[in-house]
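Researcher: We plan to redesign the surface later, but first we want a full-length starting point. C-alpha cells attached.
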C-alpha cells in the first residue's frame, strides 16, 4: 500500500482482509487475490509481494504508472495461478524466478517494455495454458530445452504462444514443435526472426491460428502445413519466402489467408484457392501472380475481401453471376487488367482497378479507377444531435462520457469485416453477463490499413446517465482484461492526454480522472429521411427474424413473454461452434446416437465442452427447440448437468453442456471407464441423483418430469457426485396439469413406468419408477433387460427377507462387496422395490426417497447433516462441461477420447 498511489483507491484500515480494501480478497485472513486493473496506480511492485504465500491471482493490468522491474521475489508465490500485468509500464528483464510458479496457468505480460531474452525457465511451467508476451522489447532467440535447461518446447499443455511485436531474432527452432503440443495459437508476428518455417510445425494438428508476418523468414514454405487442417488464419506476409507458391490443398478450414509481399516464383493463379470453401479474406499482394483470375474464386460462399494488388494479373476481370453475397472488396490495383465484365449491379462491392490498363485509356472516369480507399466509414443511424463539450454520441444516439480504449485483434478472422456489429454485440453481452450496466459499445477502425494492424478504438457508453463511476470503470476494465486472457483480443484502456468524466464512489460529485474519451470515433450524421428508411428496414428485418428464428428477440436483461430467464447460457453462433470443434473434425467426434452426434469442443478460455449436434431427422421445430432451451435455462442445481449454451443458426440445432469429469454411471458400472464404485459411493450416487430429481419435481417453476432417467443419463463429477443429464424428453407441469399429464409415451425400455405406458398419463411417479430401476442397477451392475430377463422381476422373485442380504448374493455386483460391509443394503433394496411398485400412487415421492437414503448414510456415519434440495447456481462462468453422450447404444469410453484425455480417468 505504501509503494502505490492512486487517485481513486480507498483502502480503509491497516488490515487488507477487513473487507474494506477494494480489489483484495482473502481466505482465513490470508490474501489470495489482488485485482486492481485500471485504477491509475503509480509506483513499483515491491519485493514484499513475495510474502503473500497464499496469493493465487495477481491482476494489475492497465496501470501505466506502474513502472520498474518485476521483482525476483515473485517466484515465491508458489500458489499463483494467474499473473496478468497487461498494459503497465514495467521494464527490465522478466525474472528467471518466474519458472518457479508451478501452479501458474495464465501468464500475460503483454504491452509493457520488458527487455532481454525470454527466460528458459518458463518451460518448467507444466500447467501453463496461456503464454502472452506480446508487444514488449524482448530480444534473443526462442528458448528450447537442452540437457537440464528447460525451454518452451516443454509446454505441452499450453494452448497459446503469443510472442509477437518484440525483437526476437534467430531461427524458429524445429524442436519447438512436436506431436505432444496442444497449441491452437502460434503468433510470432513483427519480430526479427530469420531462416525457414520449421517443417515440424505441421505436427501440431490442433493449431487454428498461425501468424509469422512481418519477420525476415526465407526459404520454402514447408509442405507439412497441409496437415494443419484446422487452421483458420494463416498469415505469412512481409517476409522473404521463396520458391513456388505453397500448395495448401486440404486446409479447408482457412478463413483468412495472407501470403503478401514475399519473393515467390512467378506463377499462375493457384487452382486450389477456389476450393477453400470457408475463405473470407484472401491477401496475395505482390507475390508474382500472372494470368487470369478464375471466376469460381468469387463464388466461394463466405468470401468478403480479395486483395491481389501489385501483381501481373491480366485479361478481363469477371466475377461471374454466382458471386458471394458477402463480397465487399476486390483490390486489383497495379495489375494488367484490360477489361471488366460488369454483368450485375455491383455498387455494394468496392472494386479498385487503379493503375491497370483499363484505367489508362483516355476519358475513363469509372469509380473503380479514381479511388483506392479500402473501407468506407461505418454509418451511424442517428439523427442530428448536438452533444455537450467532451461528450460523444453513442450508437443509440445518446450523449455521454464513454470509457475509451484500444482493442487489438490478434487473430483476424475472429472479426468479420462485413459486420462490425457482431463484435460490438459480443463485447456488450460479455459485459452484461457480469451484471455491468452498459448502454452500448462502439468500435472504430483506428488505422488507414486495417488489414495490417487489426486495431480499433473501443468506446463503452453508460446507460441512463452521462458517466460511469470509478468502481464500474475498474470492473469493466477487469472484465475486458480477463477477456484478453481467453480470446484473441488485447484491450488497453485510455490514451495519453485524454480525459474522462466519472463520479466518486461516495458521492454524486463529478471528478476528472485520466481515462480516455472522445476524439477517435468518426461519426456520420444521417439525414432524417435516411434515418426513417433505416428504421423501416430494421422493422422489416426484425419481422423476418421473428418468423425464421424464435431466438431473435431474446435479451437476458429484459423480461417479456418471449424471453427465458437465462443463467450462464449463451447463444453461440455457428461460426463459433465450428471453431470450438475444429470444424467438426473426426478427432473431436466423441459419440453418436438417436439425437445426432456429440463433439468435443474447446472454448477460447481453454475449457472443454460437449456439443450435441442434431441430425436432420431428429431436429425439432423452432418453437419446440426454444421451449427446450427455456426449460434447461431455468434449472440450476448441483445435481443437474448445466446448459452452457446453444446454437440455432443455418438450420442447425446444437446444445452445449457442462463437462462432468468421470463420465456416465453406466460406464462405471460396466467397468468401461475404469472407475471402481464401492457400496458407499453407490449410496452417494443414488442420493445425488435423487436430489436432482426432487429439485425438478418440487422446486423447479413450473415442476419438471424428466422422463428418461437411466444410468447413461447420470454423470459423475471429479468427486463422484451424481448429476442428472439429458432433458431432451423432459416435460414441464403447468398448474392445471399437476394431477396428471396426458402425453405421448416416451422413455427407454427397461426403465419405463408400466403405469404410464398403459394409462398414457405422465406424473412425477414415472420418474420415481425409473429411479427404482436405477437403484437395482446400482446393486447388480446389470442392464434393466438382459438376456430377456427384466431386472425388476428377477429381484422381486429372488428376495428372501429371512436371509442375509435378502438372499441376493448371486445377483449382487461383486465389485461392491470388495473390502466393505454393505451397511443399509436391505433398506436400500426395500426402497428400490417401493419405487418400482406397479401403481404410481403406491410409490414414494422423490423427496421421501432423498430422506430415506440420507438416513442410510447417516446411520453409517457418512452424512453429518441433511442437505436441502434447493437450487444452486454455478459460481463461475466457464465450468468444465460434460461429454454428454445421450441416446447412445454404445457409451463413450476412455478410448473414444484418445491419449490426450488420459487425465480424465
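Model: Full-length starting sequence:
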Amino acid at each position: 500500500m505504501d509503494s502505490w498511489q492512486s487517485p481513486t483507491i480507498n483502502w480503509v484500515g491497516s488490515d487488507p482482509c477487513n473487507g474494506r480494501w477494494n480489489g483484495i480478497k482473502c481466505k482465513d485472513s490470508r490474501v489470495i487475490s489482488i485485482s486492481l486493473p485500471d485504477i491509475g496506480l503509480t509506483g513499483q511492485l515491491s519485493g514484499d509481494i513475495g510474502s503473500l504465500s497464499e496469493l493465487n491471482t495477481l491482476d494489475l493490468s492497465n496501470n501505466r504508472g506502474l513502472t520498474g522491474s518485476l521483482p525476483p521475489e515473485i517466484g515465491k508465490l508458489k500458489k499463483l495461478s494467474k499473473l496478468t500485468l497487461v498494459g503497465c509500464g514495467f521494464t527490465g528483464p522478466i525474472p528467471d524466478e518466474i519458472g518457479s510458479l508451478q501452479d501458474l496457468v495464465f501468464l500475460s505480460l503483454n504491452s509493457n517494455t520488458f527487455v532481454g531474452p525470454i527466460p528458459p525457465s518458463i518451460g518448467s511451467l507444466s500447467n501453463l495454458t496461456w503464454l502472452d508476451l506480446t508487444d514488449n522489447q524482448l530480444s534473443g532467440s526462442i528458448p528450447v530445452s537442452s540437457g537440464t535447461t528447460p525451454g518452451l518446447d516443454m509446454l505441452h499443455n499450453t494452448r497459446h504462444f503469443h510472442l509477437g511485436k518484440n525483437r526476437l531474432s534467430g531461427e524458429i527452432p524445429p524442436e519447438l514443435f512436436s506431436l505432444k503440443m496442444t497449441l491452437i495459437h502460434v503468433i510470432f508476428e513483427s519480430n526479427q526472426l530469420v531462416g525457414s518455417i520449421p517443417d515440424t510445425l505441421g505436427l501440431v494438428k490442433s493449431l487454428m491460428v498461425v501468424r509469422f508476418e512481418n519477420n525476415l523468414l526465407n526459404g520454402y514454405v514447408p509442405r507439412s502445413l497441409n496437415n494443419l487442417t484446422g487452421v483458420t488464419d494463416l498469415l505469412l506476409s512481409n517476409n522473404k519466402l521463396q520458391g513456388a507458391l505453397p500448395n495448401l490443398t486440404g486446409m479447408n478450414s482457412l478463413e483468412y489467408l495472407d501470403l503478401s509481399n514475399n519473393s515467390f516464383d512467378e506463377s499462375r493463379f493457384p487452382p486450389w484457392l477456389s476450393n477453400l470453401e470457408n475463405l473470407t479474406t484472401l491477401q496475395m499482394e505482390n507475390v508474382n501472380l500472372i494470368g487470369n483470375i478464375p471466376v469460381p474464386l468469387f463464388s466461394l460462399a463466405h468470401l468478403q475481401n480479395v486483395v491481389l494488388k501489385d501483381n501481373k494479373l491480366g485479361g478481363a476481370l469477371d466475377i461471374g453471376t454466382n458471386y458471394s453475397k458477402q463480397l465487399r472488396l476486390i483490390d486489383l490495383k497495379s495489375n494488367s487488367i484490360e477489361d471488366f465484365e460488369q454483368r450485375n449491379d455491383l455498387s455494394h462491392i468496392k472494386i479498385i482497378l487503379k493503375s491497370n490498363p483499363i484505367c489508362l485509356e483516355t476519358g475513363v472516369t469509372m469509380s473503380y479507377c479514381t479511388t483506392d480507399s479500402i473501407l468506407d466509414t461505418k454509418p451511424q443511424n442517428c439523427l442530428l444531435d448536438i452533444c455537450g463539450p467532451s461528450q460523444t454520441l453513442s450508437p443509440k444516439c445518446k450523449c455521454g462520457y464513454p470509457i475509451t480504449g484500444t482493442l487489438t485483434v490478434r487473430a483476424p478472422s475472429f472479426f468479420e469485416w462485413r459486420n462490425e456489429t457482431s463484435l460490438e454485440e459480443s463485447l456488450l453481452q460479455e459485459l452484461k453477463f457480469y451484471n455491468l450496466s452498459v448502454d452500448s459499445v462502439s468500435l472504430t477502425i483506428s488505422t488507414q490499413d486495417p488489414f495490417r494492424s487489426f486495431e480499433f478504438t473501443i468506446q463503452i457508453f453508460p446507460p441512463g446517465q452521462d458517466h460511469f463511476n470509478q468502481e464500474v470503470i475498474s470492473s469493466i476494465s477487469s472484465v475486458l482484461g480477463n477477456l484478453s486472457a481467453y480470446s484473441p483480443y488485447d484491450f488497453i484502456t485510455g490514451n495519453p492526454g485524454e480525459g474522462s468524466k466519472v463520479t466518486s464512489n461516495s458521492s454524486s460529485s463529478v471528478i476528472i480522472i485520466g481515462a480516455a474519451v472522445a476524439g477517435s470515433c468518426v461519426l456520420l450524421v444521417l439525414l432524417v429521411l435516411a434515418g426513417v428508411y433505416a428504421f423501416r428496414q430494421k422493422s422489416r428485418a426484425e419481422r423476418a427474424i421473428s418468423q425464421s428464428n424464435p431466438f431473435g428477440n431474446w435479451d437476458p436483461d429484459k423480461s417479456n413473454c418471449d424471453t427465458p430467464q437465462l443463467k450462464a447460457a449463451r447463444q453461440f453462433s455457428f461460426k463459433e461452434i465450428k471453431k470450438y470443434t475444429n470444424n467438426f473434425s473426426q478427432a473431436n467426434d466423441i459419440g453418436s446416437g438417436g439425437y445426432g452426434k456429440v463433439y468435443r469442443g474447446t472454448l477460447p478460455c481453454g475449457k472443454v465442452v460437449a456439443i450435441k449436434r442434431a441430425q436432420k431427422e431428429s431436429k425439432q421445430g423452432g418453437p419446440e427447440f426454444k421451449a427446450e432451451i427455456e426449460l434447461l435455462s431455468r434449472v440450476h442445481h448441483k445435481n443437474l448437468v448445466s446448459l452452457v449454451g446453444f446454437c440455432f443458426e443455418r438450420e442447425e440445432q446444437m446444445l452445449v453442456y457442462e463437462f462432468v469429469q468421470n463420465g456416465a454411471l453406466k460406464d462405471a458400472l460396466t467397468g468401461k471407464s475404469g472407475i471402481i464404485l464401492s457400496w458407499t459411493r453407490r449410496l452417494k450416487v443414488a442420493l445425488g441423483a435423487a436430489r436432482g430429481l426432487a429439485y425438478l419435481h418440487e422446486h423447479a417453476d413450473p415442476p419438471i418430469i424428466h422422463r428418461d432417467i437411466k444410468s447413461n443419463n447420470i454423470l459423475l463429477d471429479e468427486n463422484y457426485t451424481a448429476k442428472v443429464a439429458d432433458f431432451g424428453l423432459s416435460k414441464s407441469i403447468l398448474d392445471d396439469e399437476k394431477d396428471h399429464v396426458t402425453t405421448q409415451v416416451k422413455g427407454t425400455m427397461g426403465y419405463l413406468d408400466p403405469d404410464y405406458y398403459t394409462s398414457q398419463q405422465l406424473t412425477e411417479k414415472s420418474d420415481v419408477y425409473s429411479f427404482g430401476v436405477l437403484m437395482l442397477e446400482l446393486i447388480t451392475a446389470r442392464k434393466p433387460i438382459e438376456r430377456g430377463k427384466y431386472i425388476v422381476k428377477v429381484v422381486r422373485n429372488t428376495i428372501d427377507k429371512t436371509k442375509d442380504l435378502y438372499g441376493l448374493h448371486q445377483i449382487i455386483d461383486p465389485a461392491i462387496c470388495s473390502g466393505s460391509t454393505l451397511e443399509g443394503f436391505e433398506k436400500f433394496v426395500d426402497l428400490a422395490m417401493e419405487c418400482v411398485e406397479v401403481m404410481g400412487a403406491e410409490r414414494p415421492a422423490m423427496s421421501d426417497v432423498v430422506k430415506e437414503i440420507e438416513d442410510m448414510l447417516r446411520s453409517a456415519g457418512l452424512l453429518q447433516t441433511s442437505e436441502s434440495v434447493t437450487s444452486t447456481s454455478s459460481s463461475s462462468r466457464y465450468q468444465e462441461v460434460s461429454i454428454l453422450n445421450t441416446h447412445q447404444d454404445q457409451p463413450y469410453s476412455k478410448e473414444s477420447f484418445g491419449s490426450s484425455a488420459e487425465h480424465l480417468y
